[in-house]
Amino acid sequence: MRVIAGQYRSRPLRALRGLDTRPTSDRLRETLFNVLTAGNPGALAGTRWLDLFAGTGAVGIEALSRGAAQVTFVESSAAAAQLIRENLKSLDITGGVAVVQAEVLRALGNPPAEAVDFVFLDPPYRAVKAYQSTLTALSQAPIVGEASIVIAEHDKKFDPGEAFGKLRRFRKLMQGDAALSFYQRSAV
């Protein structure tokens, strides 16, 4: 596993052994960031991210590599949270990051002070209820504004849902066995 583009391009990232964490593949991360930047490499400069169920931290680190100003990583596993810290240290990333070791819903009860531009969530695929509870919490969270984009990675055979409160899915992208659902707040 490696950083795809930006400041830390081609630098390796470590992952935990076993099936407890399933890092977002290099190919899916590349697709995600190509969609978000739409041919404008500087599109993510200064953005604020929340990486939920962060695992290895690969998505948040990719965002930092591409110019994000702040990423908060939330991970309940002590081993995975430590791995995120080690991956950040290996890249000499010391500013603009926070690693929160907590259950996601608990962390959302004590969110970052400022609204975020992007939220990425990648619960274990088998944790179907985690999608619904997290997306519902995000639909009510003050850190998710009208311009914020919430992205859920999920198994292509599973549909997390079209709407959660004011959060509405506006795009679904499939690649291999995985899919990405993009949500944004609507006035409805």
Describe this structure in words.
It is a single chain. The chain is of the alpha/beta class and 188 residues long. The chain has one domain (26-185): Vaccinia Virus protein VP39 (Rossmann fold, 3-Layer(aba) Sandwich), CATH 3.40.50. It has five helices and eight strands. It has helices at residues 26-37, 58-65, 78-90, 104-108, 128-140, and strands spanning 48-52, 70-75, 97-101, 116-121, 144-155, 163-164, 167-175, 178-185. The protein has an eight-stranded mixed β-sheet with strand order 3-2-1-4-5-8-7-6.
Poorly predicted regions are none
Q: How many strand elements?
A: 8
What general form does the structure show? globular
Number of domain units: 1
Strand content: 25-35%
N-to-C terminal Cα separation, in Å? 40 Å
CATH architecture: 3-Layer(aba) Sandwich
Major β-sheet strand ordering: 3-2-1-4-5-8-7-6
**Top CATH class:** Alpha Beta
- Determine Rg (CA atoms, Å): 15 Å
Continuous helix count:
5
**Helix/strand order, N-terminal first:** HEHEHEHEHEEEE
CATH topology: Rossmann fold
Largest sheet: 8 strands, mixed
Key phrases:
globular; Rossmann fold; 8 strands; alpha/beta; single chain; 8-stranded mixed β-sheet; 5 helices; 188 residues
SSE blueprint and pairings:
Layout: H1 26-37, E1 48-52, H2 58-65, E2 70-75, H3 78-90, E3 97-101, H4 104-108, E4 116-121, H5 128-140, E5 144-155, E6 163-164, E7 167-175, E8 178-185
Parallel strand pairs: 1-2, 1-4, 2-3, 4-5
Antiparallel strand pairs: 5-8, 6-7, 7-8
